[in-house]
């Protein structure tokens, strides 16, 4: 048993020798559990440009031993900064080099430093889906809800890129689920827009506002329907997403679904018109995505009303709106959201 005593004579702790591989492990344990200074010197000194470049390369390549050796020279862990203003911690986080991230944090790297775009190390890790790094940064107290110049938070970026494991960590840590970027978009909107069904499920379980609209009035359901992401649409519908919400142009999710030849089974209004007087039926027949139906609907209005034609024949309103069989797609549609 190893007894650790302060200069005052007060015993700090006792540790089994079997749990300590070397002095470095001892210093790490004392720093993490008792708040003692880290094993790296807290003050820095000037180093050569060549050494700064060495640190940059070692960090990017994930060379732990090299990074540690350079940090022992009392280098500033936040230098050198790249042309975009990013720090070594940001680059290590983006690349997923968890051991390097740990070293930089121990050396006193600024965990919430912002690059020229306002991004942080946590955002870099969230974008790239680096689960271990996100866990380290959250454990070190990184700010969860800080945003970049476009209004993106780590949660929004994890939603946009479909990083489900990262999203789980962020939500468990209490990150804001409905934070809006500069366009009024939330993580749920971006995840739905890009077809990330698992992330959508996580956000819904975290009570994300499913019917919220962005600056154009677009909801998560509209984005999912327009981009043909059937599983996401089903998930949102099962959660009770509003089918009849309209965007700033008067379009509904049903109208958007037609854009991708999707047909939704819903209790929504079957024949709403947009601002140009176009109904779902008119748009569907224009693209020839409906099978022949009973021609029982004859009460169709002219002018500002809604009228649907196909080869001179009227078709009735949609009696049963159903999804087509979900199609597996390797690629994902992108949406107009900040990356």
UniProtKB/TrEMBL annotation:
Keywords from the named record: ANK repeat, Repeat
ANK repeat copies, ranges: 84-116, 117-149, 150-182, 183-215, 216-248
SMART domains per record: ANK
Lineage: superkingdom: Eukaryota
InterPro entries per the UniProt record, alphabetical: Ankyrin_rpt (IPR002110), Ankyrin_rpt-contain_sf (IPR036770)
Signal sequence interval, chain numbering: none
Pfam families linked: Ank, Ank_2
Statement: the UniProt record of this protein carries the keyword Transferase: no
Keyword Repeat assigned: yes
Name of this protein: Ankyrin repeat domain-containing protein 50
Organism: Symbiodinium microadriaticum
């Amino acid at each position: 048993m190893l007894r650790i005593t302060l200069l005052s004579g007060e015993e700090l702790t006792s540790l089994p020798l079997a749990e300590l591989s070397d002095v470095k492990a001892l210093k790490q344990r004392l720093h993490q559990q008792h708040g003692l200074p880290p094993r790296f010197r807290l003050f820095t000194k000037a180093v050569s440009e060549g050494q700064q470049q060495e640190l940059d390369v070692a960090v990017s390549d994930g060379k732990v031993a090299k990074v540690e050796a350079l940090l022992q020279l009392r280098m500033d862990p936040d230098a050198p900064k790249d042309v975009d203003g990013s720090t070594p911690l940001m680059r290590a986080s983006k690349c997923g080099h968890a051991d390097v991230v740990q070293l930089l944090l121990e050396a006193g790297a600024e965990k919430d430093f912002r690059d020229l775009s306002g991004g942080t190390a946590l955002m870099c890790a969230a974008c790239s889906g680096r689960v271990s790094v996100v866990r380290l940064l959250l454990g070190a107290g990184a700010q969860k809800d800080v945003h970049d110049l476009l209004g993106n938070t780590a949660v929004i970026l994890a939603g946009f890129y479909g990083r489900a494991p990262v999203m789980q960590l962020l939500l468990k840590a209490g990150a804001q689920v409905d934070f809006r970027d500069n366009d009024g978009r939330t993580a749920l909107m971006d995840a739905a827009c890009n077809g990330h069904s698992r992330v959508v499920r996580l956000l819904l379980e975290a009570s994300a506002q499913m019917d919220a609209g962005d600056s154009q009035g677009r909801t998560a359901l509209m984005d999912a329907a327009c981009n043909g992401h059937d599983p996401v649409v089903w998930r949102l519908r099962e959660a009770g997403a509003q089918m009849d919400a309209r965007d700033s142009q008067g379009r509904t999710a049903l109208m958007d679904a037609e854009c991708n030849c999707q047909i939704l089974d819903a209790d929504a209004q079957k024949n709403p018109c947009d601002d140009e007087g176009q109904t779902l039926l008119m748009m569907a027949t224009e693209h020839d995505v409906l099978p022949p139906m009973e021609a029982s609907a004859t009460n169709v209005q002219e002018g500002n009303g809604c009228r649907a034609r196909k080869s001179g024949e009227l078709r009735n309103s949609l009696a049963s709106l159903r999804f087509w069989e979900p199609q597996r797609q390797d690629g994902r549609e992108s949406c107009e959201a900040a990356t």
